[in-house]
Amino acid sequence: MAAIDCGTNSIRLLVTDDGTADLTRRMEIVRLGEGVDRTGRLSDAALERTERALRSYAAAIEELGATKVRMCATSASRDASNAADFRAMVRGILGVDPEVISGDEEARLSFAGAVRGLTAAAPYLVVDIGGGSTEFVTGTDSVAAALSVDVGCVRMTERHLHGDPPTAAEVAAAEADITAAVDRALAAVDGRAAATLVGLAGSVTTVAALAQGLPGYDPVRIHHARISYADVARVTAELLAAPVADRLALPVMHPGRADVIGAGALVLRVVMERSGHDAVVASEHDILDGIAYSMIDGTS
């Protein structure tokens, strides 16, 4: 079976047979949500980038013999006025409609992907930092409460962080915006009562790689790594002070993430400050795995 997660910044594919072994796991930065916060629509260029990635994924799905496909699309396609064009394009390539899922469903899938196999103490606060939104989910074996807020690495960069590197005033404006949303989310899901903070998605895993000083991006070293608040604060400050060219030179940095990683790291740092957690457990398993589990478990 094939699971596809199409977010604001990236589109990812997981093909698996039983959820224990990956036949392939791929990611492309397509920036589908580029400009959506300003224009309210998906740009032609963003749709073209996404189409190219989907055609490549469709070829891999056929080659590996996957007979069931589920594609979930998140924040950018929820917000766009031309979402129908996006759905038609996906249907033409994959033969299935993308599910433009609600924030609650996004949270449920992210939580399921993140906590399966996790040995850290429950209850969990799972925070999925995306391009356009961030999901806050609490629970033990299942979701107790969830909220999605419109704070993500692409949205915050486009809204506030215009300099290269951003100015102190720009960072302060982004931090104020993020803090208001984080406080609202933590209150709604009782996030401060959780025993373990689990961080998902590329911003978190990249910060975890940088905090560990890895010579290259290594999912095995990153998955379930425990990163202290001090290290998150240090990496965030370094990223926000560096121009994009310097971020691109970092050996763990995906080229498509370099311009927005400062905002993503800032979201993570604020979450830790406002929730009172002194460490975050980084997870390589997230909504993409949750989509696959939903097909395996028959809950899709």
TrEMBL record:
The record ties this protein, via PANTHER family, to: EXOPOLYPHOSPHATASE, EXOPOLYPHOSPHATASE 2
Question: What GO annotations for molecular function exist for this entry?
Answer: pyrophosphatase activity
Q: Per UniProt, which keywords does this protein have?
A: Hydrolase
Q: Which residues form a coiled coil?
A: none
Q: Which Pfam families match?
A: Ppx-GppA
User: What is the name listed in the Swiss-Prot or TrEMBL entry for this protein?
Assistant: Hydrolase
Q: Which residues form the Ppx/GppA phosphatase N-terminal domain?
A: 21-296
